[in-house]
Specification:
The chain is α+β, with helices and mostly antiparallel strands. About 30% of the residues lie in helices and about 20% in strands. A hairpin with a 6-residue loop joins strand 2 and strand 3.
Length: about 160
């Protein structure tokens, strides 16, 4: 689904899946992968893009897919909200100091990560921003602390830990 809730593709009745099934496909960017779902619908089925805003990357539907656990959202549940407030504050404080030292301010750092200027950064953009900044921390751990609602995107407020 894109941000307006419209599926990427409607499937004919002959291809109606028995239940919602998540899978991972390669993205158009180097090293990019995306979580998709195929789900039953009243007209047959539909393909939904589940891990970020749909227009940020291309997906490759070449027949190569990787089935995932049916309970998968964006991050494993063991990472979501598994950090103490003190631990989160320390890690985010260190990240903010790093961003400020690299870009001069958190706002300038956000602009480097928010390459599309739409006020949202997905995990792929976050990884690319960290590479650009030469940040070498645990990116999955940091992302789980920023994207506390597990939506697959963060805003500036989340980027600065609020």
């Amino acid at each position: 689904e894109n941000s307006s809730g419209v599926p990427l593709v409607h499937l004919p009745p002959d291809f109606r899946p028995p239940e919602k099934c998540p899978f991972v496909v390669p993205g158009g960017r180097s090293g990019g992968f995306h979580l998709l779902h195929v789900a039953p619908s009243s007209s047959g089925g539909q393909l939904e893009w589940s891990d970020s805003v749909w227009n940020r990357d291309d997906i490759e539907l070449t027949g190569v897919t990787y089935e995932t656990d049916a309970t998968l959202d964006c991050l494993p549940s063991s990472l979501i909200n598994s950090w103490s407030a003190a631990r989160r504050q320390i890690v985010l404080g260190d990240f903010q100091k790093f961003i400020t030292s690299k870009f001069g301010s958190l706002e300038s750092g956000w602009q480097a990560y928010n390459v599309y200027g739409d006020g949202q950064v997905d995990f792929t953009d976050f990884i690319e921003g960290c590479k650009l900044a030469k940040f070498s921390g645990n990116l999955l751990r940091l992302w789980s602390m920023l994207d506390v609602q597990n939506q697959g995107v963060i805003t500036f407020q989340e980027f600065i830990g609020q």
